[in-house]
Amino acid sequence: MFSRRLPRASQRACSRLSQPPHHPLQTFAKLPSQTRIPRPQCLARRNISTAAAAKKLFKESPFLFPLAGFCIIAGMAGFLYLPYYYQNYIIAPYHNFPEPVAKKLRRAIFYSSGRNVDVREANKYFRQGILLANELGMDPFSDEILGVKIAIAAMFEREQHFNLAIEVLEILRRDCYRWVEEVGPKHWTDGKRTKILSKTVELNVKLGELYSNKYVQDTDAAEERLVEAVETILKEKSRREKDGVQTGEGEWMSDEEVGASLEALGHHYEEKDLHYLATPLFLQALTLCPPKSCHSVVLMNNLSICLAQQTPTPTPDALPNSVPHIPPHSRAMIIDQARQWASKALASAAVITPPDRTEECDQGCAVATHNLGEFAEMEGKIQEARKRYQEAASLAKAVGFKEGEINAKEGLKRLKGKD
After folding, report:
1. I want to staple 338 with a disulfide (CB 3.0 to 4.6 A). Which of 39, 67, 166, 308 is the partner?
2. What is the model's pLDDT at position 292?
3. Contacts of 399 (CB under 8 A, 6+ apart)
4. d(Cα 17, Cα 264) in Å, to the nearest integer?
5. Does the residue 303 lie in any domain?
6. Distance between CA atoms of 297 and 344, rounded to whole angstroms?
7. Residue 269: domain span
8. Number of compact structural domains in the chain
């Protein structure tokens, strides 16, 4: 019998027979060393450069494009500056205060400066800050709290409320002296006593300045405060020389600070025409002045002026018997001494060079030359006086010293017709 699968087998056999014969594969004796790959073609369009795009935008909008760029740069600068401003001008100045106190002080500063000055509001927030500081346990004689109280006085002074400024500083001065007497002996070794005592000197000098103000004109009170400042300085200096400086006590006031206090009292006596009292104070301040300081030129000029304005020593017949006899000084001798100090001022200014040389040297030269002209005028030497006044006027004009130029021209006017 035939199988029923036979027809399929025959069909597969037929299909195989019907396929074309296979050809053998072609082989190459040697393959090419490098296959060449065709370079792909870039069908996309090349993007325009940033500079070219900017030029195109500028040509299309010559006004709006720079304005937009400026706004972007300004915005970025402001964005970067705001954290710096906040940290250095809002937070840093008050980092020693508790935050509740700092908030009050920021409001006080806002109302005490700039265009938003409101003395009443500023004073209210200053005082609220001080009360909060006391409640939170801050030391009322710390540098921070003393600085706040001095800032209140400075605000009153700026707004020309001089009596209120004096009142604040007087209260602070009394508190500091009371602290030195009652609590100071407990703070020999931490330097706080020295710091508070030097603060009393500064307060006295400032009060002397305020009392001498033309809107107050309390010369007696000014003299009292300035004398108290000098006495405090000399008393503490004497104590240190006698008992020695204790460990941790700290240095006393510098020579320049002591000289400034002496000079302030000297100017006060000079304004009251007490030149015989002002002269030794200026001389002592000069000895404390650094050797290459232009301020020494100013002090020498002050000495020459004080000497020239002094009256000669009374004759022996005019003095009471209890006063010892002192050889009288003639007017010519006094003027000669004044001339010597003015000449020393010029010589000192000539040897001071930058960076030590300041405008005090330039103005001091003009003042000294003017003083020499006045001394010559006092002695009747008109030609020499005119020459000195002309030199003083040219020097003052060269350095921009308007007051010196005006005074020199006034001296020349006085000499007209005196030849």
Report:
1. 308
2. 87
3. 359, 362, 363, 366
4. 134
5. yes
6. 8
7. 162-273
8. 2
* Residue at 254: amino acid letter: S
Give the separation between CA 265 and CA 267, rounded to whole angstroms: 5
Q: How many CB atoms within 10 Å of residue 301?
A: 25
Mean pLDDT of residues grouped by 10 in the chain (419 residues)? 42 44 47 53 54 69 73 79 61 80 91 87 95 94 94 95 96 96 89 94 96 94 96 93 87 91 95 92 94 93 93 50 52 91 95 92 95 94 94 94 94 85
Q: Taking the alpha carbons of 145, 149, 152, 157 in that order, is the dihedral positive or negative? A: negative
Is the distance from CB of 382 to CB of 415 less than 8 angstroms?
yes
**Residues 193, 307 within the same domain:** no
| DSSP code of residue 268 | H
Q: Is residue 186 located within the same domain as residue 261? A: yes
Beta carbons of 281 and 269 less than 8 angstroms apart: yes
Closest Cα to residue 289, out of 260, 316, 332, 315?
260
Q: How close are the terminal C-alpha atoms of the chain, in Å? A: 172
